[in-house]
Amino acid sequence: MLIKRLLVAIVLFASMTACTPTYDWRTVRSDDLLYEALYPGKPSRAEKSMLFQGQKLTMTMEAVKVKDALYAVGVIQLPPDLKSLNLSNDLMSFIQTGMLSNLKTNQAIVAKPIMIKTYQGESLSASEWVVDGVGPDQQRRLMRLRLVQRTFPDGLVQIYQQSILQSLNHEPALEKILSSDEHSMFLTGFKPY
Questions:
Q1: Using an 8 Å Cβ cutoff, are 99 and 76 in contact?
Q2: Which of 176-182's residues contact partners 24+ apart within 8 Å by CB, and which partners?
Q3: Whole-angstrom Cα distance, residue 27 to residue 5?
Q4: Integer CA distances (angstroms), 67 to 19, 28, 62, 64, 182, in order
Q5: pTM surpassing 0.85?
Q6: For the residues of the chain, what is the DSSP string, one character each?
Q7: Whole-angstrom Cα distance, residue 168 to residue 178?
Q8: Distance between CA 150 and CA 162 in Å, rounded?
Q9: Are 161 and 145 in contact (CB under 8 A)?
Q10: 143, β-bridge pairs
Q11: What is the pLDDT along the chain (193 residues), one digit of tens a residue?
Q12: Contact present, 157 and 88 (Cβ < 8 Å)
């Protein structure tokens, strides 16, 4: 339910931002969130609190809407007293379940294991989901979601959510959208520190 509210907040957030008719690619460094990303426009920032296992956590989201798609990176930093591996895995499952339940679909939703390179060139195991479904507003949408957890040497744990939420107003070939330069540039331009 909290994740559904987060998706609604993301959609409202996107509707409040100015729609840019063309792509204006830029590298954005979020030193406080510990990542760098290539966005197709200037992102705006919003924060959303969530309650997870009795703990209040904050997800900070940076997102930009261009044409019919929202490009977003969300970050949750686990407080030191919550950084146990099991808890962070539970939180990853909670985020995944909540985000994927926002689109109704008849297809099987299966995670694809991927690797994400850090800013320093290390490889991190991550998961990616691609869902073609109907959103709460009854509009057909494509969601591409990636989740990755980064544990730093000092014990800090960050959970990163990278997503593209795209309206499918007509019947485009999904393969063409998934292999588009826009998707590729945004996804490969993300680098956790």
A1: no
A2: 177/142, 178/130, 178/144, 182/23, 182/40, 182/66, 182/69
A3: 29
A4: 7, 20, 17, 10, 11
A5: no
A6: -HHHHHHHHHHHHHHHSPPBSS---EEEEETTTTEEEEESS--EEEEEEEEETTEEEEEEEEEEEETTEEEEEEEEEEPGGG--HHHHHHHHHHHHHHHHTTSB-SS----EEEEEE-TTS-EEEEEEEEEEEE-TTS-EEEEEEEEEEEE-TTS-EEEEEEEEEEE--S---HHHHHTSHHHHHHHHT-EE-
A7: 12
A8: 13
A9: yes
A10: 131, 165
A11: 545 555 555 554 544 444 445 899 999 999 999 999 999 999 999 999 988 888 889 999 999 999 989 999 999 998 776 656 566 778 888 888 888 888 999 888 899 999 999 999 999 999 999 999 999 999 999 999 999 999 888 888 899 999 999 998 776 688 889 999 999 999 999 999 9
A12: yes
73, amino acid identity:
V
- Quote the tokens at residue 133: 């479904």
Task: Please calculate the CA angle 23-7-124 and round it to the nearest 5 degrees.
Answer: 70
- Copy the structure tokens of residue 116: 């994400």
What are the structure tokens assigned to 123, written together?
A: 């490889």
